[in-house]
Design goal:
This protein has helices at residues 2-7, 19-31, 42-51, 68-77, 94-103, 115-168, 177-207, 220-237, 263-279, 316-319, 339-349, and strands spanning 11-15, 35-39, 56-60, 86-90, 107-110, 215-219, 241-245, 258-262, 285-292, 302-309, 353-358, 364-371. By secondary structure, the protein is an alpha/beta fold. The radius of gyration is 29 Å and the shape is elongated.
Length: 374
């Protein structure tokens, strides 16, 4: 594999409307062992880049029809084209260079160019290409490792969870109360680890673009009530009141609080936010409000879910980082730092946003905004 990579001939695409310039570039570069493709206009260059991406593009700025700036912009705006260095060739003043770099070019060389300078810039651009390709390759390998690892970890964790449940239910034999207590502790630890693995797997799917959302009408008011009922035992253990306020929704509006979304993923977000609120609150209450914004002139409005607690709160300097991946809170009860990151990715995929408002010692408010179903 290494030999194949070392022997790979680097491909350069030269784009210039002047045939003499193309011949000159081809002669200089082929002597150095590069494979050179020649194109005399911007449209053909774009087609060539899509069909057979080169390792480097040498691009003349001034061409009829479509100039080098526009070719550069179109290449950079096309998400299907992987990164390719673009070296602009120009005979104009500094302003043209600035425009080219702003358009997305990586470097430039002036006409008439020096033979050695051209080759030096070509080598520099190809080193940049190799460096970025290697980084992307390592990122793909890391993501693949995470994906495989999380899949492999889930199987024994699920099996262990089921086996522990059978022990707790005395399926095999009677057990003492002390043993039941120990098994319950093991089950909680196992479920925490399983949740972390599941979150990591979901984060990978979103970031790898492999997550498919099953969109349907979701009543967020009912969804919140379902999650509160599911988590009520946790709140009762701590003596916390959990209140749901839907009074701001119009009872005559059948679409009040309804969004288009993946019910399972939105439930995951609401469960994470309410679960965190209960987890980080020792006294007081957790209050969830579901409301809507007035419709704008285009008839669009937002469904807003606010989860407010009376817990520890979050320091101001940490609030801007709390949705980052693996960003753990400073509280000793903080988890892996994946839950809020995943929640943020889910809400963004629904074209919404999530914010936090907090003050140390006075609790926090997490606000989710989602487009209301039309």
């Amino acid at each position: 594999m290494l030999d194949e990579e070392a022997s790979k001939v680097e491909r350069i695409l030269a784009v210039d409307d002047n045939p003499d310039n193309l011949v000159l570039l081809q002669t200089i570069l082929e002597v150095e062992g590069y494979e050179v493709g020649l194109v005399d206009n911007g449209m053909d260059a774009l087609e060539q880049v899509v069909q057979s991406p080169p390792d480097l593009i040498l691009l003349d700025v001034m061409m009829p029809g479509m100039d080098g700036y526009e070719v550069t912009r179109r290449i950079r705006k096309n998400p299907e084209i992987s990164y390719i260095p673009i070296l602009l060739i120009t005979a104009h003043h500094d302003a043209s260079v600035v425009e080219g770099l702003d358009a997305g070019a990586d470097d430039f060389i002036r006409k008439p160019f020096n033979h050695e300078e051209l080759l030096a810039r070509v080598r520099s651009m190809l080193r940049l290409k190799h460096s970025i390709d290697e980084q992307q390759k390592m990122a793909r390998q890391r993501e693949d490792f995470v994906s495989r690892l999380t899949h492999d970890l889930r199987t024994p964790l699920v099996a262990a969870d089921r086996m522990l449940l059978l022990f707790e239910q005395e399926t095999f034999c009677p057990i003492s109360e002390d043993m039941k207590s120990a098994i319950s502790a093991m089950m909680r630890s196992n479920q925490n680890l399983l949740q972390m693995v599941n979150n990591l797997l979901e984060v990978y799917r979103f970031e790898a673009g492999k997550k498919t959302l099953q969109m349907e009408s979701c009543n967020m008011g009912l969804l919140v009530e379902e999650v509160v009922q599911e988590l009520s035992s946790l709140a009762m253990e701590k003596g916390l009141a959990v209140n749901v306020d839907k009074s701001k929704l119009d009872p005559q509006d059948k679409t009040a609080g309804v969004v288009m979304g993946d019910r399972l993923e939105l439930r995951r977000v609401i469960s994470n936010l309410i679960g965190n609120a209960i987890k980080f609150t020792d006294t007081g209450s957790v209050n969830i409000t579901v409301s809507e914004t007035p419709a704008n002139p285009h008839g669009n409005s937002w469904v807003i879910i606010e989860v407010q607690d009376t817990g520890y709160g979050i320091a101001k300097e940490d609030q801007g980082k709390i949705f980052e991946r693996f960003r753990q809170g400073k509280n000793k009860r903080a988890g892996s730092g994946l839950g809020l990151h995943l929640s943020s990715r889910i809400i963004e995929s629904h074209k919404g946003n999530i914010e936090v408002f907090s003050e140390l010692g006075k609790g926090s408010v997490f606000a989710v905004r989602l487009p209301k179903q039309a």
